[in-house]
Write a structure and sequence with these properties.
CATH class of the largest domain in chain B: Mainly Alpha
Number of strands of chain B: 0
Number of helices of chain B: 19
Largest sheet of chain B: none
Strand order of the largest sheet of chain A: 1-2
Order of helices and strands of chain A: HHHHEHEHHHHHHHHH
Structural class of chain B: mainly alpha
Largest sheet of chain A: 2 strands, antiparallel
Strand content of chain B: under 5%
Number of strands of chain A: 2
Shape of chain B: globular
Largest interface: A-B, 43 and 41 residues
Shape of chain A: globular
Number of domains of chain B: 2
Structural class of chain A: mainly alpha
Number of helices of chain A: 14
CATH class of chain A: Mainly Alpha
Radius of gyration of chain A: 22 Å
Oligomer: heterodimer
CATH architecture of the largest domain in chain B: Orthogonal Bundle
CATH topology of the largest domain in chain B: ABC transporter involved in vitamin B12 uptake, BtuC
Helix content of chain A: over 70%
Chain lengths: ~350, ~450
């Protein structure tokens, strides 16, 4: 088996780094898109986005339970995918309700962005409490259907390699749904009249008003999109891992990191930022010992775990990247602020 | 006219609320709430300096609180000599390597002009540092953590009285704030918020996982106390005499001697708990008053006026020749130092340091609610906000349970809906906080006690 060392090393890397990072990155990208669009159109940092995601996921879980009790399931696919459109509608309605009852007042007053941010903290508290009140603070898995696409054992048996590759079906679903979402979003922003109106409004509010764009409509569409993005991101993350309100609150920072690293206000930046954050989190905390054992001759093999940072610091990595980007290039990789 | 009585009226209401708890529940509970109210008020004063005076959104309150707590441990815990002698040098050396690396990179960044050379040098400094840390830091840490891990497993502290740490915490938090401020001030206001939120999470991550420093999530318990212990008080003659003389009439009403002794014992036990809390309250109030008067003086001074000028119109202030970033750095350091003091006091009151308990909702955003509800820019407002919001935070739980019970009165006692609602009632606490914040922002954006705008 000596000759397959390189292949084994690559499979090892794919199994523990590349596949998880791609799926986590897609989830972060969709979430960061929500943050970046609020920033571009409504011009504030929405601290409530994590809890909006958790609200959307909770709604999807409730619908999943309803469908399951009615005997409707997705077969090999998770039932949550059927519940997703319903959850999106509910979350989008909630966004509109919040906008009407809370944010609209400050928009009319032309309040400073920081005021909006503090208001979003208030919204965050209320959403957080609502979710915990309805579904409780505990961990919940709502995945059903076929769990694995490729199993490690089957993979080993069919290829004869020492290392196994596992791909969970949720990881494939994540990637497919994320790609569809991004394509639809970019098509909407680039090609449709409403999308162009949104971009114009984001670029220069006064000029957009002069050209006869209805600001209330732009804001309404924005919130619907944000609600949909938050729900999709939340459901994908919850399917892949599990749903816990506190975890979703904690996701706020990797999400902001992704949006800012890419260039806040720039949708392509948010997508790229999502993958940058996900890959760095996973690559920097992976112990490469086994990888090097495959590749290097015996006398060069590392004695330690060859890990850059202990897994304890997984959460800190996104903040460190964020801080570095803020110092070196505050506008992000793609110059941000317009969509 | 009504403006003049706002502050006294607000504090009167607050006193009444606390008195209701005192008479209704018990004075021990009320004093427990008051002590945390005072600590919250100090934190709110710190945030108010940054937000109310200078318009800086510091979302890293939790990090500075935890640093204060860490200082309390490092000052008051007995040193672990065994750990120091076996691996202390390794840790010190690692610290030295890290500091020289930082200075090295700074030097290279400032002095070297050529970009390629600069990058090569910086990368090689980082490489050498990682290599050096790998040799010295890793092994030292495992040695330290293996020494009596169930009880210590860390380097310990200096063994000084814990009250010293209150002052030191100001310097520790201030120093870290200086570093953070150097990095993040000058960013747009909402970037500052996100950056500080992130940095505070890094601080907590370090405290949770660096066991050699403060035992990480294994917590440090049984810290030194600046006030007497209840058990000791209950055996001290002067204290028993004091309790007896306060309750003379109550005791004389009891005829049987043994009964009288039992009642006295019970009174002494209750009294000792109240006495300890009173001692803490005395110390805390002293700190609160000192910080309040200093901030008040600062606000009235030309420096305070300049800060408000910068807050209200950065461009104009800049045109007048004020260095905005430098002034922001000053206020950021001072405000964070105050939060650090409060953090050390909190750990002192708890008698233990538990990094796992630091959560941004409880230690960052609630403090923000206090400042905004109390009245940003007004120190008295922040103190009131600290008292009122902490009071609500504690009392929200029993209130929401009572509310839910009332609401579900018509339902069957064992119905699943009722059971679920009762079990979820504590989560309404966050709901109440959010509602208070949103209502205050909407209908009372200046806060309960608004900033005084002097017309000179």
């Amino acid at each position: 088996m000596e000759n397959f060392d390189i292949l084994n090393a690559l499979i090892l890397l794919a199994n523990f780094v590349i596949v998880p990072a791609i799926s986590y990155g897609s989830q972060l990208a969709i979430a960061a898109l929500g943050i970046t669009i609020v920033y571009a159109v409504l011009r504030f940092s929405n601290f409530a986005h994590g809890d909006l995601m958790s609200f959307g996921t909770m709604t999807a879980i409730l619908f999943t339970w309803l469908f399951q009790s009615l005997g409707i399931t997705g077969g090999v696919l998770p039932t949550a995918l059927i519940a997703l459109p319903f959850a999106i509608v509910v979350t989008a309605l909630l966004c509109l309700l919040i906008d009407k009852s809370v944010y609209r007042f400050y928009r009319k007053q032309k309040s400073h962005a920081v005021v909006f941010m503090i208001v979003s903290v208030g919204v965050m508290f209320i959403l957080n409490a609502t979710v915990r009140f309805i579904i409780g603070p505990n961990d919940r898995t709502f995945f059903d259907g076929e769990k694995f696409l490729i199993r490690a054992l089957d993979f080993k048996a069919s290829t004869g390699l020492e290392e196994g590759l596992t791909i969970k079906s949720t990881q494939l679903i994540t990637v497919i749904v994320a790609i569809i979402t991004m394509l639809l979003l970019f098509y909407f922003l680039q090609k449709t009249k409403m999308g162009k109106a949104m971009r114009a409004y984001s670029n220069n509010e006064d000029l957009a008003l002069l050209s006869g764009i209805n600001p209330d409509r732009v804001v309404m569409i924005t919130w619907i999109i944000v609600g949909a993005l938050a729900t999709i991101a939340g459901v994908l993350y919850g399917l892949d891992k599990s749903f816990k309100p506190f975890t979703y609150f904690q996701l706020l920072l990797p999400m902001f990191a992704a949006a800012i690293v890419g260039g806040i206000g720039n949708p392509i930046g948010a997508v790229v930022g999502g993958y940058i954050i996900a890959f760095s989190e996973i690559m920097l905390t992976y112990a490469y010992k086994k990888f090097f054992i495959y590749l290097l001759p015996e006398h060069l093999e590392p004695s330690g775990l060859t890990q850059f940072l202990s897994t304890d610091y997984k959460f800190a990595i996104s903040f460190i990247i964020l801080v570095i980007v803020l110092i070196i290039r505050p506008t992000g990789v793609f110059r941000g602020k317009t969509i | 006219m009504i403006e003049k009585y706002r502050a006294p009226l607000a504090f009167l209401v607050m006193a009444l609320l606390l008195a209701i708890v005192g008479f209704g529940q018990s004075w021990s509970v009320a004093l427990g709430i008051i002590n945390l109210c005072i600590i919250s008020a100090i934190m709110a004063l710190g945030v108010n300096l940054q937000w109310g005076y200078a318009g800086l959104f510091n979302a890293g309150v939790m990090g500075f609180t935890a640093l204060g707590g860490l200082t309390a441990v490092l000052i008051s815990h007995q040193p672990i000599y065994e750990a120091w002698s076996s691996a202390g040098s390794g840790i010190l050396l690692s610290g030295f390597i890290l500091i020289s690396a930082v200075f090295g990179i700074y030097f290279v960044h400032k002095k070297i002009e050529k970009i390629l050379l600069k990058r090569i040098l910086i990368i090689s400094i980082i490489g050498i540092t990682l290599f050096g840390l790998n040799i010295f830091y890793g092994p030292s840490v495992s040695i330290i953590e293996s020494i009596n891990p169930a009880k210590t497993g860390f380097l310990g502290g200096l063994g000084l009285p814990i009250i010293v740490s209150w002052l030191v915490a100001a310097f520790v938090a201030g120093f870290v704030a200086w570093i953070i401020g150097k990095i993040t001030l000058g960013l747009r206001s909402d970037y500052l918020a996100i950056a500080t939120l992130g940095i505070s999470e890094i601080v907590i991550a370090v405290l949770k996982h660096e066991d050699w420093l403060s035992r990480g999530v294994k917590n440090v318990t049984g810290l030194d106390r600046p006030v007497p212990y209840e058990i000791e008080l209950q055996e001290t003659t002067w204290f028993i005499d004091l309790i007896a003389s306060i309750n003379t009439s109550k005791l004389q009403a009891v005829q049987i001697l043994s009964d009288r002794q039992d009642i006295l014992n019970k009174l002494v036990i209750d009294g000792s708990s109240i006495f300890v809390k009173l001692c803490y309250a005395g110390l805390f109030i002293l700190v609160l008053l000192i910080i309040y008067f200093l901030s008040h003086l600062a606000l009235q001074s030309p420096w305070g006026r300049m800060l408000r000028a910068i807050r209200d119109n950065e461009d104009a202030a800049s045109a007048m020749g004020k260095n905005i970033v430098a002034k922001h750095l000053q206020i950021f350091v001072i405000g964070s130092a105050i939060i650090g003091i409060a953090g050390a006091m909190l750990t002192t009151l708890d008698g233990q340091f538990t990094p796992g308990s630091y959560q941004p909702l409880r230690f960052t955003f609630i403090i923000w609610v206090m400042v905004i509800v109390g009245g940003s820019g007004n120190n008295l407002g922040s103190i009131f906000g600290g008292f009122f919001i902490w009071f609500m935070w504690i009392e929200a739980e029993p209130l929401s349970i009572a509310f839910i019970s009332l609401l579900t009165n018509g339902l069957d006692y064992n119905s699943p809906v009722r059971m679920h609602l009762i079990a979820s009632a504590p989560h309404l606490r966050l709901f109440i906080m959010g509602s208070i914040l949103l209502l205050a922002l909407r209908f009372m954006p200046q806060g309960v006690i608004p900033e005084k705008v002097s017309k000179e």
